[in-house]
Amino acid sequence: MPLANTPTSVPVVVDEDKCIADKGCTVCVDVCPLDVLRISDLTGKAYMKYDECWYCMPCEADCPTNAVTVNIPYLLR
Amino acid sequence: MVFEPFEEESDFELLEENLGDPDPAVRRVAVMDLADTADPMAVPLIARAVSDESPEVRLQAAIALGEFDGLETATALCQAMQDGDNRVARAASDSLSELKDPEAAPPLLTLTSHEDPKVREGALLGLKQLRRPDALANGIEAMKDPVAAVRIQAVGVVGYLKAEEALPALISCCRDGDPDVRKTAVGALAFSKSSHARDALFAALEDENWAVREIAAEVLGRFPLGDNAQRLIGLLDDSYWQVRVKAVRSLGKLKVTAAIDRIGSQLDEVTSNLRKEAAAALGEIADPAALPYLEKLVDDPDPDVRKNVRWALGQIG
Amino acid sequence: MLERLEKGMDDLRAGLNEVDCDLLVIGGGTAGPMAAYRARKKNPNAKVILLEKANVKRSGAISMGMDGLNNAVIPGHSTPEQYTKEITIANDGICDQAAVYKYAQECYSIIEELDQFGIRFQKDDNGEYDVKKVHHIGTYVLPMPNGDTVKKALYRQLRRARVLISNRYMATRLLTGKSGRAAGAIAVNTRSGEFLVIKAKAVIMCTGAAGRLGLPTSGYMYGTYENPTNSGEGYAMAYHAGAKLANLECFQINPLIKDYNGPACAYVAGPFGGYTANSKNERFIECDYWSGQMMQEFFNELQSGKGPVYLKLNHLHKDTADHIEHILHTVERPSRGRFHEQRGTKYSEQMIEMHISEIGFCSGHSASGVYVDEFARTTVPGLYAAGDMASVPHNYMLGAFTNGAIAGEHAIDFAADVDFEEFDGAAVGIEQERVLAPTKREDGIPPNQIEYKVRRLVNDYLQPPKVTAKYELCQARLAEVREDMEERMMVRDAHELMRSMEVASILDCADMAAHASLYRKESRWGLYHWRTDYPDSSDEEWKCHVLLSKQDGKMACEKKAVQPYIIPIADDEKDAYYKQRITAQA
Question: What's the predicted TM-score (pTM) here?
């Protein structure tokens, strides 16, 4: 399939030591209006799967353990 | 089975079970789930989590209670506000400020003289929103609190109740040692039409803090000043232009003809906001004596100033 | 409740289910929750479904809240009559006043209701609403210090009112019956691609703006002014259902903080003495209203030697500037603080560079929307619309709440009197085939590339000034892209499938923007409809609405007279404002 992978630096980063997604928390994934976060099958932690971010912050604000940081996408900085 | 693509009904049994899980993270998630139910049945369960051994779970419970109201919620929050962990106490205080139901007041009333100033402050902040007349005595008493942050909330409680009998206490707070207390107290005098309140506002025009002078000038715009207008006019010499703007606005609102020349002199100001407000005030006073001042500004570089000048000229006719 | 995530999420699955209800509300942002809530309050026995493609908890334009109301008509500060007049003038007279007047009368009760929900509005030291005066014409600004809790408070009310919330379902087409009445909608799960048919006696659309129409100057596709999840589905669905859309040529273009692309909120800073200035530190906006004229002045200044344009706060006392900074950095778009911090910009020290946004459809700030009357009814019986996608002009957040409430109450009464409308069962199969086509291809173009191309063309050709030759070129290019979309677009999972459906809406909106703009052969609303081939306004020919709709499968436009004014506007009143501008230019 002739589709290439173009790398992007994602705005939303998750501190895996703080993230409690493996304990049943899905807050950040639930609240993203663009539905771009997922929980990794490998680590059980949240991560940004799709680089389609409005830097709007509910994922960071609602995270109970302060594990999520929203950065301004590089193209706007 | 019928397909039901909707958010599920709350399973309180499961949530209660999870609340007893040995893993604090699981308990924490259970507290979040309980908050999401928005069902008052969740309150006793969350209240239990306020005594959890893990500070994280207690913190989550203090946040979660902000979604509910009423006596049971307030009681649990009052307990959380006395938590040894600062984060829990602060979250509880935030949640208390969201209360609306007057029935929530009793536990708060017992805490306005608590030994911890943070607790006293939180209790008063919560009471302010509830506007319960029986909180007036607590408010007046707390105005003498040694901690300024507590006194500010006490003034808030009293100011929201708009009780004439609290005027002497409010007026004495206008001379408080802390500028933020003075500012709040001066603002809270707006409801009164008494001459005592007015005199306190005049005194506040000479306050050493600019923000206090600013709010006093603004509030005085609601009082008929009569012969005392000179004292507000005097504020046009203030070193802060933001204070002068409020004085100009109030003098305009009160149509103080005696202020025309002094307002006119503000039209030479570099700060265009002040020129703009001065022009509007001259329009409100609507006296031909202002014409020479206004005509000078017809070509001001600032369009908002020009607009107000044209409007003012129209008012004078 | 927390959604439980399954393994293999996003994997495409086949599925088709059906549910029915009295009232279907599409869109769980601002207007939608209020519509569903009020419908249940009015008729507690009614089955009300609220459909949302994300999660109602944080979806829509106000996901992170709002810093204040800028169109609050509060007794003692302004009147419904005064407000209606101002909105009429701001829209160059092309305004059906009934809906604006209705809003102005109802909005205060909505403020009080929101206050009861726990959304606190700024109060003074006596606990009265602390309405801020912006200029001598009207007083409409009411700050919301805990505006970040709006969505939470709404969600709580929805749960308590037992509205059936259906998250992760994106409506793709409305169903209409043989008589043309609304019959429900077809939706697709955004994480599995399974279909859901919702039969309903009445439908309210609250899907927000078309915010992903133009491309932001940063080039980042999701760095839009509007929440990019608002990609114009409501406009597209209404069009395909046969509803009429009003004044789409009156584009939305907003002032914003450059690159960050968030609102500069001059209305927040205004009462404190902040303002929009050019590089000489001077105000330049003559216009009294947020309108196309104001945006034209903004555009002209940017193009002139006196640009760039700034938000100026650095003449204020540091405490005041810091206070404004604090408000702007905590609510609505809180990442703004992070943006400025990275660049080392302090509001008390430097002016903040501003710019204008990409184009969009949004009645919240301009007037482009699905045509509705004062009861939020569209031209399709049983179909309602409210919020940014409905044609009530300049209605902002409070308008979404208020008109949502009006729609909910009217629609639930309508539903009580009717039975389910029969619809052609074949429509479901046809829609499934259309939606799933990109999933059947092994090879092709991904939706993000098609979207980029459409939006790049919108910027190149449709952004004002509007030039006929460029518009015609654009239509030809868009037709080519449409062919690519229909024949070659491919998706690999359910998330991409959602994006592919959004692309279809964006493309429909781009076509509608071009078509409606070419129809109105005059210039009006300042920058919003500046046609270089017809630089003047013609009241004789064009002081009317333009309605766009689907006729025999094609786009068609017609004129519709403005309804007689309820609140008359005397000529000298119009002139008073007009003359102010003329004199200023002389």
Answer: 0.95
